[in-house]
Each structure stands twice: as structure tokens, then as C-alpha cells.
Amino acid sequence: MKSLVKDTAIYGVSSIVGRFLNWCLVPMYTYVLTSSAEYGIITNLYAWTALLLVILTYGMETGFFRFINKEKDRASTVYGTSLISLGFTSAVFALLIVLFREPVTQALGYGGHSEFITMMGIVVAIDAFTAIPFAYLRYKCRPMKFAAIKLIMIALNIIFNLFFLLACPAIYAKNPHLIEWFYNPNYGVGYILIANVISTSAVLLMLLPEIFEATFRFDKALLRKMLRYSLPLLVLGVAGIMNQTIDKIIFPYLYTQGDAMQQLGIYGACFKVAMVMMMFTQAFRFAYEPFVFAQHKDKNSKEAYSDAMKFFVIFSLLIFLGMVFYLDILKRLISPNYWEGLKVVPVVLVSYLFQGVFFNLSLWYKLTDKTMFGAYFSLLGVIITVAINVAFVPLYGYMASAWASFACYFVIMLVSYFFGQKHFPIDYQLKKLGLYVLIAATFYVLATVLITPCVLANYAIRTLFLFLFIGIMDGPVAPYGVFVLFAEADAPEPGLRKTRRETAKPREKIYKRASHISAPSSSSLSSVMSAWGRWACSRSAFISRRKMSLMMQG
Description:
The protein is mostly helical. The chain has a domain at about 1-255. It has 23 helices and no strands.
């Protein structure tokens, strides 16, 4: 168990830190690139990359784990067959991209930069192929090497981005003869892709020892079995990723009121500002998924799931209020050329909240082995997203895309809840959750209405609202353990006073550890969120077990 917790922490931290570091590049892009249209190309390219990567791996990563554990005596054959299959399809994809780069460039509207398509194809092909060696590292329980390679890839990507976009322009301005043989000051987007190609190629080189561990035995019958298992997962994967990227893929074809790439760049940058909520959801996810399956056999597991949902919603609302209250400060992370799109941030934040709640609700079809419902819900989300974008983007631009994301996750969240109550009923304390949402919405509206000529007074009012919301929270601690709250909205049940005193002890420890700590750095925030998620889940489980013990004694 200790090994499992340690490995989960390593995989989780490397993933969250990676997302955060990549997110840190966005402000630089908005200031360095010559126009928002260039960032629109990056937004569009990365949306295509995410979709193509899901298609090119076609569920084989999950299939690899399924069959290498099922047929341990043929582990080398499973590994070799998986590598050959993904290697072949990735090579064919890269070849087709190179051969048809010109028509693809014209179709995507990249202004004659066919090399953008070539570089994107190389990156996607390598990423798809290396999915199996990365899975092999996890199978062999080598989390440190897995995390190290991931972080080295991110570090190389950042280093070469800084070199091409910051260092080279500075050198070129003073001594152009030093770098003019390879540097073009008007090739901004291209250098972002070159950095991507370099970092991805480095990963391939670092994984060569794992690749050559394979025996490269190809078993056609085994591959057919693996594909029968994996291809249905492709449908779920494509639907899931399309809910996140389809708006950025189809936007250039729908928007006709001006420069579509310029508007997409503004939308993409402001969308990224709201990704703090997504990083919190990801951190919570690493703690919550193991918790769900560990608690499944507990008689009071449903109460623990309910409490975990409550904690997630409260903390998400706290992030929402914190970001919208201080958006005037946060907006300086990106260039003023993009500020007109900041109106999407509140909508996107709530969309991420709905997405997180949908993930929390997904436990019912995972625990009851009805995972096809997840595919149905995701497909429903795709239909909603595409329909709203097609109908309203020509009229309202990227605001329609933001509201499409909102509607998508709101609907599938509700549908999942009602189906879940039928198959795996859980009391999610809807009255309490509704009250928290109402209070947060009220504070948000008041903060937008109560605006004075004094900037400091406005921030003071918003800070007051933020502290008031923290004061009414039920149970969880505020960010980084600064505030510890013991009040419950309902009166304590008889016999539970001891339970709450007991559960206060870990909070007191958190408070003592945090009392001498200054404001947390951004790089540590994701780790704190994940730790908070694990603590919240463990607290819920403890209270549930205590209640059952007291009931039996009664």
C-alpha cells in the first residue's frame, strides 16, 4: 500500500507540475508573438494534436495493461506486439502528413507554412508511439524514471522556447550577425513547434533502452484480441477529448465577422487563464480515484463519497471567487491585446467546476461496471458542443464557444446525476450544495455591482466577500491551511462530539504547520491541492466509520 501511495504521488505530481509549467508559457506567448492570430494558430494546432493523439493510440495503452497482466507468461510478446502496432500506425501517419502537407496546410489556413503541419505530424507520431514505452515503465514500477523523463521533456521545451522567443531576439537586436544564419525574427509560431519537436525527440531517445527491451515478436491473433478490447475505448476517448477541443478546431470555419485566427487566439489565451480550476480538478482526481475504489466495500462509503463531493464543490467555488474577484490583477499575466476576451473566464471557470462534478459523479458507472454510460454522456456532450458552436459562433464569436462548454458539462453533469441516482443512489446533500452555490453567486453579483471610484476599496469589498465565504464553509480548511473551521451548518448529532474533536486534531496539525509559512508559491499549489484532496477524503471516511460504530453501540 505504501508503494502504491508513493507511486501515485510521483505520477500525479509529475503530471500536475507539467501542466502548470506548460501553462506558464502562455503569458510569454501573448507578449512575444506579434499578433493574437499567431497564438490562434497555436491554439488550433494543439487542439488538433490532442485529438489526433487519442486517435493514434486507439486505446492500446489500456489494452496493453489489460493483456500484459492477463497473460504474464507472454508479457514480452504483448509488449512487442503493442510496440509494432503503434510504431507502424504512427509511421504511416507521419508519412501521410509529409506527403499531403500542402493540402492540409491550405485546409487549416496556416498561410503557406506547410512545415507547421510536418512538425505537428512528427510530434504526434512520436507521442503516440512512446505511449507504450511509458506504459511499460509503469508496468515495471519505475515511477522515478517515468517522472524524470516527463519533467526533462517539459524542461527542454521551456528552455528552447525561452531561447528562441526571448534570448534570440535580444541577441539579434545587438549582434544580428551571430545568429542570423539560423534565426528569423518573424518565425514565432515555428520556433514554438521546433521546441516541441526537440523535446519530443529527446523523449524518444531517453526511452530507447525500454524500447529495445522488447523482443519484437508480432502476434497477429493477440493483436486482434487487443484491438477488440481497445477500440471501444477509442470512442470514449475521442468523445471526451472533443468536448475539450472541438470548439477550437471548428471555430476558424464558423467565424465570419473578422479574422478568425485572431479571435481564436484571444479565446485560447483567456481560456488558459481559467485553467487553474482544471489543475485543481486534476489534483483532486489523483486523490479521489484510489479513494473511491478503496472505500467501495465500506458500508458507509456512500456518505464518504457525498462528503468528498461537498468538499470539492466548496473549494472549487472558493477558487472561482478568488479568480473573478482579482481578475483585474490576474489579467496582467497576458498581453493587453487579449484582455477583451477576459469575459469568458467566469463562464469557463464554472464549466470546469461542472466538469469536476461530472467526474465525481462518474463513480457510479465505474463501480457498477456500466462504463458505456460514460461514453454515452461524452457523446451527448459532443453533440451539444457542436450544435451550439455551429448555431451561434457566426453571430456571437468565441462567447458562444465558452457557453457551449458551459452547456455541455452542465447537461452531462445533470444526466449523470439522475442516472446515478437510479443505479447507485447517493445523498449528495443537494440543499447544502445549492446553498453554497447561491452564496458564491450572490457574492459574485455583489462584487460586480458594488464598484467604487477607489480601486483599493473595490479590492477590500471583494476580499471581505471572500473571507465571508470562507467563514461559512462547512469543514474544509482554506488554501494552504491558514484558516481552520469547525462549525457545521447543521446541529451536531448526539454522540458525535468526540468524533469532531478527533477529526479536529489533524486540522490543528495542519494549522500549526501552516502558521509559519508565507504565501505559497504557484509551483507548490498543485501539490497542496492534491494533499488537501487526500485529507478531505480520509476525513470523510473516518467520520463515516465513526458514525457506524456509534450506531452499532446504540
